[in-house]
Amino acid sequence: MARVQVSDETWTAYRVALGSTPVSAALGQLVEREVASHRRRTALDAEGVRAAVRDARAVAGELETLIARLEHSTRHEPATH
Predict the structure, then answer these.
(1) Residue 2's pLDDT band (boundaries 50, 70, 90)?
(2) What pTM was estimated for this model as a whole?
(3) Could you tell me which residues come within 8 angstroms of residue 56 by beta carbon, excluding any fewer than 6 positions away?
C-alpha cells in the first residue's frame, strides 16, 4: 500500500476526473506508463528499441489528440480583450 502525497484539492480533482474508474486501476495505469517511459529512455537492444518506438508512437498519438482538442476549444471560445 502506498500513500499519494498531493494536496486534498488535487486528490479531489483526480477522483472526480476518474468518474467510475477505481482508483486502484487508475494508479496501476500510471505505474504502467512510468515503467514504459523508463523503458523507452533506457532501451538498448533491438527488441527493446522497437518496443520503445511503439510506446513512443502511442504517446505521440495521445498528445496529438489532446492538442487537437485544445486547439478546437480555443477556436470556439469568445475573444477577450
Answers:
(1) low
(2) 0.59
(3) 40
The torsion region of residue 65 among left (phi > 0), alpha (psi -120 to 50) and beta comes to alpha
Could you identify the residue written with the cell 488535487? 10
The 3-state secondary structure of the chain, one letter per residue: CCCCCCCHHHHHHHHHHHCCCCHHHHHHHHHHHHHHHHHHHHCCCHHHHHHHHHHHHHHHHHHHHHHHHHHHHHHCCCCCC
Round to whole Å and give the CA distance between 5 and 3. Answer: 6
C-alpha to C-alpha distance for 41 and 77, rounded to whole angstroms: 38
Per residue in 21-52, pLDDT tens? 999 999 999 999 888 888 888 888 998 889 88
Q: Kindly report the CA angle at 65 between 23 and 38, in degrees rounded to 5?
A: 60
